Amino acid sequence: MVKQCNFAGAICDVSDFKTLTNVQYGSCFSFNTKKLKTSKKPGQYEGLQLTLNVEQDLYISSTPVAGVKVLVHDNAEMPFPEVGGISVSVGNEAAVALTKTKFSRLTAPHGDCEEEDINEYGYMYSRTACLSTCVQSSTYKDCGCYDPRFSLPGNNSAEVCSSVVDGDTSSSQYQCVDEKMTAYLAGMLSCICKQACEQTQYDVDVSLSKWPSVKFQSQVVAELGLDTNDPEASQQNLQKNYVSLRVFFKSTVHREVTSQVAYTAWDVTADIGGVSALFWGVSILTLVEFIEYIVTIVTIPCIDYKPDKVRNDAVTFLAVYRKRSCL
Fold this sequence. Notes:
Layout: E1 2-7, E2 10-11, E3 17-22, E4 26-31, E5 48-53, E6 67-70, E7 86-89, E8 92-104, E9 113-114, H1 127-143, H2 162-166, H3 172-185, E10 195-196, E11 198-210, H4 217-224, H5 231-241, E12 242-249, E13 255-258, H6 265-299, E14 303-312, E15 317-323
Parallel strand pairs: 8-12, 8-13, 9-10
Antiparallel strand pairs: 1-2, 1-5, 3-4, 5-12, 6-7, 8-11, 14-15
Helix pairs in contact: 1-3
């Protein structure tokens, strides 16, 4: 399958891959899950370069396309190529440029995300894995088998629904599984699957080119150890079975999307205190002014404004009033 492997200028080998079995795609090879490798520079020569042989002669008659399915995911998450990823047909080279985005979501009571670390597949929790587990659990409970269109939980030896594999639409097993799929697509299954609190996502930009070029074909044939004495047969073999793949970072800058509490309990307390202080201050000031007004109204009739003595000069005019009792 993997004929050539190079990562950031260094040759990689079989120890850098982990084999996974997918019910829809068969054997899958996951890179960089064991001995973690890092890329410190952007560009297609600083990432992963693969030459793959799909061995199309081994395909079964029900396989509609020839090529590979490529899925870029966090190395701690379970890959689901049937849900996402890109398809690359034989005789082509795909350049996959990556942009990394990390999401940090809030837990209750401010948010609603899942804090679970390990799921039924033995990987980090993901919403896709949760939905797959929900469908498979419901299917196994009611139909007695697992739907081959979804990944199976790890270390599970239960049988796959053979009627779905064989396409026997008349069997009761197939109809049971089909009802579950219809309910899942309609959102009628009671699957409570939240977004993960911590999630890493890779956005991809893909460009395809015809591979190899006419002038470069002889070099590729020699590197792959194909028959150099029959160029035409080697060319047909390349176009029939081989794929070139380059996966690299577009930039070393990545995005972080973090949810933060916009209004905390301290903010509420501070706002209540501020508003209360404002209203209490206004109320006390108004009360003092009202008392002063009452005192003024009461005391004015008690003052005799008839002057008892007047002293007049060039600077001041002084009037001395004689108070009298109101009682």
